[in-house]
Amino acid sequence: LPQAFKRALPILEKIQAAGFEAYFVGGSVRDTILNLPIHDVDIATSAYPAEIKELFAKTVDTGIEHGTVMVIDHGIGYEITTFRTESTYQDFRRPDKVEFVRSLKEDLKRRDLTINALALRPDGEVIDLFDGLADLESKTIRAVGQARERFHEDALRMMRTVRFASQLDFEIEAQTLAAIKENAALLAKIALERINVEWVKLMLGKNPKAGLADFMATGLFAYCPQFKEHQAQLESLLTIENLHLDNEAEVWTLLAACFGYRPEQGGQLVHAWKGSNELKAQVTKALRTLEAMKAGDLSPKLQYLTGSEMLAVACRVARLLGLADYSSMAVLLAYEGLPIHSRAELAVNGKDLITLLNLKPGPILGQLLDQIEEAVLNRQVKNDKLALLEYGRSQLEE
Ligand code: ATP
Ligand code: MG
Question: Which residues bind CTP per the record (predicted)?
Answer without folding.
Answer: 27, 30, 111, 154, 157, 160, 163
